[in-house]
Design a protein that fits this description.
Elements: E1 4-5, E2 9-10, H1 35-41, E3 45-47, H2 55-58, H3 66-76, E4 82-85, H4 92-99, E5 103-108, H5 111-132, E6 143-146, H6 149-152, E7 161-166, H7 180-185, H8 208-225, E8 226-236, E9 239-241, E10 244-246, H9 248-257, E11 262-270, E12 291-298
């Protein structure tokens, strides 16, 4: 195998190795990457480089970048495979699927966010047509289903999807008193600061332990509908609520492995574009959390 340094290029130590980096290995059943692209993407730290959020996306209080989802899609799927986001929000995962020729399926409890996702997908289609200058270009269809995810998932047959990617709620931290960030980025602009007032909304559950149990029911269904030997990526961040710091990523990793998934690793997603706020000054350390965790799981059985 030729050794590769992402900064220096190919190593001189390559005479005893046989894998060529600039080719697609015929044994690769996971993705369409060359060996070199595979190696670079396998780095455990990624720098998030999101573009500006459109006005529709900005309505939602918790979103992620389509560019980060694209990177996951290219590593964990091939074109025209089926991808699931069981907590789809305003459709970022589905836009990434459409842009990259995958069949995307999203489930959303709250009709308002599902409607916005459909509007955003329509905009994404028009943008694709314009950029590719193909008036007759037809992207693969994307499906949004409205309802409680754990119930909607039961409608899918076993091992229907080749990849699952999602970002679950951060418990009920959107319910807490508004801090510097929420006041500046949400309240001052008159947009929603929480998902909904629905009782079934995971973001409205009062206790952390019950919240994790409810999430686990969804991930148990995800395990069933995912094809054997395929992967699931879960994007989360840790958070502080009142006086306690919650290591959400590690709690969730334990929660998900209990339903049968194998925990394969963690990608640190650095978000240097996020604003800094004067938390704790001048009395105590309170972190500005400018990274997320992408938890990678696999269904091995």
């Amino acid at each position: 195998m030729e050794l590769f340094d992402s900064k220096k290029g190919l190593s001189e130590e390559k005479k005893d190795y046989k894998i060529k980096l600039d080719v697609h290995d015929k044994r690769n059943k996971l993705n369409d990457l060359t060996n070199k692209e595979w190696m670079i993407t396998s780095k455990s730290v990624w720098i998030s480089m999101p573009g500006p959020r459109d006005e529709l996306k900005f309505q939602h209080p918790a979103t992620f970048a389509e560019s980060d989802i694209t990177k996951l899609l290219k590593f964990f799927t091939k074109e025209k495979q089926r991808v699931l986001d069981p907590l789809v929000g305003v459709g970022s995962a589905l836009i990434a699927c459409r842009d990259n020729n995958r069949y995307g399926y999203g489930i959303e409890l709250i009709p308002k966010w599902a409607d916005i996702a459909r509007l955003r997908l329509g905009q994404a289609q028009m943008q694709l047509d314009f950029e590719r200058k193909e008036d007759l270009f037809k992207a693969l269809p994307q499906k949004i289903l409205i309802g409680d995810s754990k119930k909607v998932l039961r409608k899918f047959k076993d091992e229907y999807f080749q990849f699952i990617v999602t970002s679950p709620p951060y418990w009920n931290i959107l319910q807490k008193d508004k801090d510097h960030k929420a006041k500046r980025e949400r309240v001052s602009k008159g947009v929603d600061t929480k998902y909904s007032t629905l009782e079934e909304d995971l973001g409205n559950i009062k206790t952390y332990s019950l919240f994790l149990k409810k999430l686990q029911v969804i991930f148990k269904e995800c395990y069933r509908v995912l094809e054997s030997k395929k992967y699931m990526a879960v994007i989360v961040t840790d958070f502080k609520h009142k006086s306690r710091y919650y290591s959400y990523h590690s709690d969730l990793a334990d929660n998900i492995t209990e339903v049968g998934f194998s925990h394969e690793g963690v990608i640190i997603l650095v978000q240097d574009n996020k604003n800094l706020y004067p938390y704790g000054i001048p009395y105590a350390y309170v972190p500005n959390i400018n990274h997320q965790y992408i938890l990678i799981f696999r269904k091995k059985s």
